[in-house]
Amino acid sequence: MITLNTLIVDDERLARNELRRLLEPFTNINIVGEAVNGDDALAKIAELQPDLLFLDIQMPGKTGFEVLSALHDHVPEVIFTTAYDEYALKAFEFNAADYLLKPIDPQRLAEAIKRLESSEPRVAPEGDGAGANSFSNKVLSENDQVFVKDGDKCWFIRLGNVRLFESVGNYVRLYFDNQKPLILRSLNALEERLDPHIFFRANRKHIINLRMVEAIEPYFSGGLLARLKGGDKIEISRRQAIRFKELMSL
């Protein structure tokens, strides 16, 4: 296991102490120091040469983004920690490893560190405007975090929380929680990027998350009807029903 020398950068003492507490179970995270603002962070990075930064965004003086822009010789991995979700797209323009919202959820923190340990390729956003999103060319697992923008609304979501993908013309609608944003992407292109063991092409218009299936029942012409968490009922076509049964059998 690789040890990551880590610098915590946050202007709030309580936030630094809380993050230290949350990081205690991770034996590969070696906290080498703390910085209380942007200028302090630049000095500590030059001195300590950390492998990883937990970096706040809004701080007195330089912002977290300005800190990264000032780095040249040594650029550590970065996990942003902030109370504001509106910076997510910009964070990934800086090739951030992850983006954690305060108060930091221990499970999300664990996922972020696990991603660093496995050296998974990062997911970076593509373009901007309606439909801008962070679906890249690599195969995406249920644990990948993606950034989705639909109009003025933005979400930073774990793919495993998406129960359904629905084709709507040249767009795909994502169903998660009570949200249904659209992204500019075809369902066929999206299917190529999703883990087929988790995300199943039910028919021409729908991909379902198999972990979100609550019940299956027979349907017309040899097909099946899948009931998902949240109440969605999706037909599995006759041809796909054969694949579904093979996939789900012992």
Observed structural traits:
single chain, 250 residues, alpha/beta, Rossmann fold, OB fold (Dihydrolipoamide Acetyltransferase, E2P), five-stranded parallel sheet
Mean pLDDT: 86
The CATH architecture classification of the largest domain is: 3-Layer(aba) Sandwich
Spatial sequence of strands, sheet with the most strands: 2-1-3-4-5
CATH class of the largest domain: Alpha Beta
User: What's the SSE pattern?
Assistant: EHEHEHEHEHEEEEEHEEEEEH
Distance between the termini: 34 Å
Q: Unreliable runs, pLDDT <50, ≥5 residues? A: 119-132
CATH topology label of the largest domain: Rossmann fold
Sheet-strand content, in percent, reads 25-35%
Structure description:
The protein is of the alpha/beta class. The protein folds into two domains: 4-118, Response regulator (Rossmann fold, 3-Layer(aba) Sandwich), CATH 3.40.50.2300; 145-248, LytTr DNA-binding domain (OB fold (Dihydrolipoamide Acetyltransferase, E2P)). It is built from seven helices and 15 strands. It has helices at 13-23, 38-48, 64-69, 88-93, 106-118, 187-193, 238-248; strands spanning 4-9, 29-35, 52-55, 77-82, 98-101, 145-150, 153-158, 164-168, 171-175, 182-183, 199-201, 206-209, 213-218, 224-228, 233-236. A five-stranded parallel beta sheet has the order 2-1-3-4-5. A five-stranded antiparallel beta sheet has the order 10-9-8-12-11, with no helix packed on it. Strand 11 and strand 12 (206-209) form a beta hairpin. The model is unreliable at 119-132 (pLDDT under 50). One of its GO terms (molecular function) is DNA binding. Pfam families: LytTR (PF04397), Response_reg (PF00072). Residues 5-117 form the Response regulatory domain. This is Two-component system, LytT family, response regulator. Residues 148-250 form the HTH LytTR-type domain.
